[in-house]
Amino acid sequence: MSAAFPPWLLLVEDSPHDRELALHALRRGHFPGRVEAAKDGVEALDLLLGRGEWTGRDLADLPRAVLLDIKMPMLSGIDVLREIRSHPVLSEVPVVMMTSSAEDGDLEACYALGANSYIVKPVEIETYFGTVLEIGRYWLVHNQPPHVRRGVLA
Length: 154
Fold this sequence. Notes:
This is Response regulator. This protein is an alpha/beta fold. It has a single domain, classed as Response regulator (Rossmann fold). It contains five helices and seven strands. Mean pLDDT is about 90; it is low at about 150-154.
């Protein structure tokens, strides 16, 4: 990650309602960075890999973290995680699974594939807002990313 790029997060959420709630929580909490939102796993990978409408995007500009839902049509969050971890440049991008699934199988699969965190979305709205904001601030403000990402200077 280059210092020339401002830090940002990628939110991947297929539910328009949940996506807007997360974005609202970040805006309301005066989140200190940019957030890109993808409506599904295909769109997320297109953005990360510079395909489709993101063709020509500077691929050195990586998110500080990906907040990734699991249960999505077309390409599940687990499939997206697997794909992220298979790409040398993307493999070190932190991935936080944010899901309504508390299933042990999902949790185990995500950690086995290299998820950095697994968070079950709180049901109570204020707790949800606080959780989303805490996660975003942690990865954008408090966490120190590596200085070199597989040939991309930080």
